[in-house]
Write a structure and sequence with these properties.
With 310 residues, this protein is an alpha+beta fold. It has 3 domains: 81 residues, Uridine Diphospho-n-acetylenolpyruvylglucosamine Reductase, domain 2, CATH 3.30.43; 129 residues, Uridine Diphospho-n-acetylenolpyruvylglucosamine Reductase, domain 3; 79 residues, Uridine Diphospho-n-acetylenolpyruvylglucosamine Reductase, domain 1. Helices cover 27% and strands 28% of the residues. Strands 6, 7, 8, 11, 12 and 15 form a 6-stranded antiparallel sheet that branches. A hairpin with a 5-residue loop joins strand 11 and strand 12. The two termini are 13 Å apart.
Length: 310
Amino acid sequence: MKHSVDEVFGRQVRQMISGEVFFNEPMDHHASLGVGGKADVFACPENERELVGLVGFLVERGIPFYPVGNCTNLVVRDGGYRGVLISLKRLQGLEIRTDSVEETLLYAEAGVSLARLTEFALQESLAGLEFCAGIPGTLGGALRMNAGAWGSEMKDIVSSVRLLAPGREIEEIPRSRLSFSYRNLDFSGGGVITTALLALRRGRRESIKARVEEITAERKKRHPLTFRSAGSVFKNPPGTPAGRLIEETGLKGLRIGDAVVSEQHGNFIVNTRAARADDVIALIEIVRRTVKEQRGIKLETEVVIIGDEQ
């Protein structure tokens, strides 16, 4: 680590975090794809207050950090991450804040999984989150990448987010000031989403349940769920789904080590046994280059790649 994790630093971090703090933590233990080198520090703040304190401490010392949720669309290179990965998995607050005929505002912290959000909304007969059924990951990551499916995106249901920007106070930002685009929420200068208010509406539980079950069944049919993956690897370019482009260029089944372009869905790379991050990244580059050469389309990754090469 550029800023070495010495005993004093480790003790200071442990004093401000009541959740777990791991050193030299293998990220293949956390990433849904099952690959990744070691993070110098993997810290799990218990609440927003601890998160604020930790980020301030790291900013003061110029130590790199990156927020993560369930690590479902994350690849840490085999050389590991030089800095602190801040896990938001303990930020689990979830409750109805306001309820009216027009809309219901659902308060949720960044570490709440989309699966739990979808189930909570179903039990409370709240419509609007059905498109999230079957999407892995947490609310914070879903907002940051403006996750979407079936014609809906996170931007459609967000009322506001609380953002911790390095060097500044936490700010609640209304939807009107949030800069969403396809698979992205732009925060100039960076920041960590801590909570959000989601604008949902009252509906019939039976209808909501039927839609959730329909979407879940369709995902199971289309996606390679028997192997570990990071979900969709590439963003869909305008006009043509990335998976179709990859299939049309004959890349399904392409293998490097134990990483394979899925035969079931071209926009998935699966870990068939003991793939390495290098294998996955090499496959990504081959797919990008081939699609660019054959179709003249430059694919952009939806998965986030961080860390050092070996």
